[in-house]
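FIELD: query
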Amino acid sequence: MHPALHSWREELPAHVVRLMAYVGGLVVLSIVAAQVFQSKPVKSPIAPVDRSDWITIEKPFPAFTLAIPEAAGQPETYTIRRHTIGNGRKDILGLGEPDGVTPFLRVEVYRAGREISRFASAADTIAADATALGPVKVAPAADPVASKFGPLSLVTFETSQGAHRYCLGFARNYDDPMLQISGWFCQGDTFVRESTLACALDRLTLLYSGSDPRVGALFAQAELNRSYCGQRDPLLAATPKYHALWKALEMQPPRRTAH
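FIELD: result
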């Protein structure tokens, strides 16, 4: 037999063995790679940011003012938010420390646009707006309280987020113009008196009504109903310095001591 043929026949089994070994190795590597890639969790796509339909206006031009001289030196905030679709506007006034046991008053004037067809109840309004406070023990009052804006629907609640406070929420809705005045008055030791809240809102006045004269007429009528914190005639007695407006505890009845 030719030596070349003899060498080829002797080498053939070795080549086959090596080829089968290579193929087997590739199969094993493929299985291992598949297991590795399958064991890695598949990353879900980034969830889109749920952007609010309300935007905050930079450098807001105030349309309302809350003049309370007794609270001089307290922090004041003014925020305007616009609805991007319905064009509604919210003017939000804050007076006092928003997260503390000292009194804090928040008033929101909501001039609705096409984004809603009607306002929610006082309880639902306060629950939605005061989410950051974690309102608990929410209890609507049985009777409204009189104010220069008409009867205010009241809601009492306590805060579970931040400093513990007792808050008196309020809301007053109008149909023409479609406007809502709402907010809350909080302090650390006890609920603010209803008369104190009404006196505070006595100080809420309009600076300009914009393009809707009905808002101007509404606030003009409210000024005619103003009680000047219990003293109706501003000629006989100018707006009194209502000391308890910012130190509402002074209005509480004295505590009886046990004998």
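FIELD: remark
The CA atoms of residues 30 and 159 lie 60 Å apart.
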